[in-house]
Write a structure and sequence with these properties.
Blueprint (H helix, E strand, L loop, with lengths): L11 H13 L7 E11 L5 E11 L2 E9 L2 H13 L10 E10 L8 E9 L4 E8 L2 H20 L1
Antiparallel strand pairs: 1-2, 2-3, 4-5, 5-6
């Protein structure tokens, strides 16, 4: 995975989830993301509107979550949380405290692989997760999914 751009030295929670999967044969899972869509629109008045729609299955229930934000990653995070909070009220305690993007293989320009690191806190502890993809939103979605999964695992 590190040859693909993952870096687990800076992503303790993603590494721990990987270890859980290796030991038990399956990754801890509280929900499954089936589909997502983000849109960014510039209106005639020059304002920017960002929306996300996430279809998720949690506890056997399929829900479509909608969120807005100051960018596509913030909108995705807000949408995912808005749907999952009804199943996992502890999500209210989780806060994204840092978000870092690093371009790998910069010579590829806008087609480069992107690594996203997300740092999350529950008010007491902090953890980091990683996502890697050529699409920055997809990499962010991976890191956010790990962040929420790890947070819920800690609350279990």
């Amino acid at each position: 995975m590190e040859s693909q751009g993952f870096s687990f030295e800076a992503a303790d929670a993603s590494f721990e989830l990987l270890v859980h999967e290796e030991i038990s044969g399956k990754r801890p899972s509280f929900f499954t993301i089936e589909h997502w869509l983000t849109t960014v629109e510039r209106a005639e008045d020059q304002s920017i509107l960002t929306k996300a729609e996430v279809t998720v299955v949690a506890r056997g229930t399929k829900i479509v979550c909608i969120g807005t934000g100051n960018g596509p990653v913030n909108a995705f995070d807000n949408a995912l949380r808005s749907g999952l909070i009804q199943f996992y009220p502890a999500l209210d305690q989780l806060k994204l405290i840092d978000y870092k993007v690093r371009i790998l293989e910069g010579r590829l320009g806008t087609g480069a692989i992107t690594r996203v690191l997300v740092e999350t806190s529950d008010g007491t502890n902090e953890w980091s997760t990683v996502g890697v993809h050529e699409n920055v939103i997809a990499a962010s979605a991976m890191a956010l999914e790990d962040a929420i999964t790890f947070g819920l695992l800690r609350k279990k």
